[in-house]
Design brief:
Order of helices and strands: EEEHHEEHEHHEHEH
Radius of gyration: 20 Å
Strand order of the largest sheet: 4-5-8-6-7
Oligomer: single chain
């Protein structure tokens, strides 16, 4: 039967290595210390991992099993997921719904980024958080912000939408390996429904992922034959 969660449980962590390419931390319990290595580099993911482990301990899940499960999961869907199509610049997509969640992501990435922290956002994200709080947070943490209009994907896009896409193209073309790109919006592969990314909802994640695929085509593997 399920165990009630009444007792307190402290599960601290010690960082071992952290960069835009991932992080390793030591998760400590009363009985052992377990290393955890994940691709998601931000601090909120560590806090979520410790909380999940603490809950698991109350249900007699060992720290080792919890750590391997966290590594297998890799990330929280929709929260600071990596987009990798062979580009040199680290690219992440995040779907924050509160100002606190947005701040946590921005602060973590800014701390790890040697170059520019560039943000590309859907207008809907700014509206969800609130335009003024959204702008205040971006002014503090980001070096450059581009808010994409919804019409950027419309087949009948007007001149303003076409100019916006041209600006996005220049922004992505100018990224350097030491920069970091944060995309604020829906992930390219939507997990919320069976229809996937073709459910009719606009997403800047689809645009950026598509641009990266075109800009960084897979390299042909030599077959050894002439």
């Amino acid at each position: 039967c399920a165990l009630p969660i009444y007792s307190s449980c402290d599960v601290p962590a010690t960082p071992v290595d952290r960069s835009l390419h991932g992080q390793t931390f030591l998760m400590k319990t009363a009985d052992c210390m377990v290393p955890v290595a994940v691709d998601t580099p931000v601090l909120p993911f560590v806090r979520d991992s410790l909380l999940a482990t603490a809950v698991g301990l109350r249900y007699r899940v060992t720290p080792e099993v919890a750590a391997r499960g966290i590594e297998a999961a890799g990330c929280v869907p929709g929260r600071v997921e990596r987009i990798d199509h062979g580009q040199d610049t680290p690219v992440f997509i995040d779907g924050p719904t509160t100002g606190h969640a947005l701040t946590a992501t921005l602060a973590s990435l800014r701390h790890l980024t040697a170059g520019r922290l560039v943000v590309v956002a859907e207008q809907q994200v700014a509206e969800t958080i609130g335009d003024r709080p959204f702008r205040n947070r971006l002014d503090r943490w980001a070096d450059e912000l581009f808010v994409a209009p919804a019409g950027i994907l419309d087949e009948h896009a007007g001149d303003a939408d076409i100019l916006a896409y041209a600006r996005l193209d220049r922004l992505l073309s100018g990224l350097q390996p030491e920069d970091c790109l944060l995309v604020l919006g829906r992930p390219p592969a939507d997990r919320r429904g069976p229809d996937g990314p073709d459910d009719g909802e606009w997403s800047i994640g689809h645009v950026v992922a598509g641009w990266l695929r075109v800009a960084h085509p897979p390299r042909d593997i030599p077959s050894g034959r002439r």
